[in-house]
Specification:
mainly alpha; Amino acid/polyamine transporter I; 2 strands; about 0% strand; globular; transmembrane; Spore_GerAB; transport; membrane
Amino acid sequence: MIEKGKISPFQMALIMYVTVVATAILYIPFVNAQQANRDLWLSPIWGSLSGFLIVFIMIKLYKIYPKKTLIQYSEIILGRALGKIIGFIYLFFLLHDTAIAFREYSEFIESSFLFKTPMVVIIGSIALICAYAVHGGLEVVGRCALVFLPIVLFFYVMIYFLLIPDLNVNNMFPIMEDGLIPSIKGSIAPHAWLSQYSLMSFLIPFLTDETKGMKWGIASVFASVITMVFMNLGNLFLFGQSITNIPFPVFVAAKYISVGKFFEHVESIVISVWVLGGFVQLSAFYYMLVLGTSQWLKLSSYKPIVLPIGYLIILFSIWSTSSLQEMLQSMGTTTPFYFLTIQLLIPILLICMAIIKKQGHLGKNHMHKLKPKD
């Protein structure tokens, strides 16, 4: 096996949680509000269906093909040629998805703090740090999630706790004024973000207790949805319908904090704390891409390709979009369908083919037993 390290099911849940939520808490409130308006807090609830479904599918596939990842059992299910094609499509998507995550990170840092720093410098610096973590292996990424995530969550909860005097619950009323349709339209982005739980496939083979994969996978999806709902409600209570004009509402919310006229302007703390979560997210994406590529190429180790893959990530991050405005627009239009096509439809195709193949195999065995002996 290429990866010798092991992580606990709890660490897997944390890695997947931060992989989905780290950028979602920045962008989801704004993207949801474009369609759902004041019902934006309902959208992640509808989006949770994709998350729970994909966790069930990935665990089911792993039970049929233990110790294998999606890249490996694609060849077993579909045959070598077609399996290689599906694996390549998924890995190319993962490269693009990882590049988008790096670009989202750099866009936030540049537009909020490092205004004059070239984009390539921001992306290159975080890519180099992540490469060091990825070279250390899965256990390093798991321990980073275990250490950094509680710090990140504590500070994000504190933001809205300190803003309680400024929150107006009436901003969420009337609920579903225009029916269910707006919130369902707004759920397209959460569906796409939560479909990233298909990446569990790269972590399940390395769990210390594989029997708890389903339990902690479901718990991770549930925690992700609760976080999105909490962030959407917090921003709705603070900004009202003007949230449709604020690309980074969590960051702007931190600027509102003023306690006793001496504890204020804490947005720099928010950035530094978010960087910790962003580092874990980007390292996880990076690791899964490197691991999957080495399995597709049937390499004996993934470490020689860590830096070359990092170079590709930097290039694709620069090429992925021309501006922040274009990226935000695509998040609410084409990007979710692109994510769902790869991360939901491919696993559904694989599980259907695996079940058909398994049933066919069982049928042949049954007929063989019934065949009279000479």
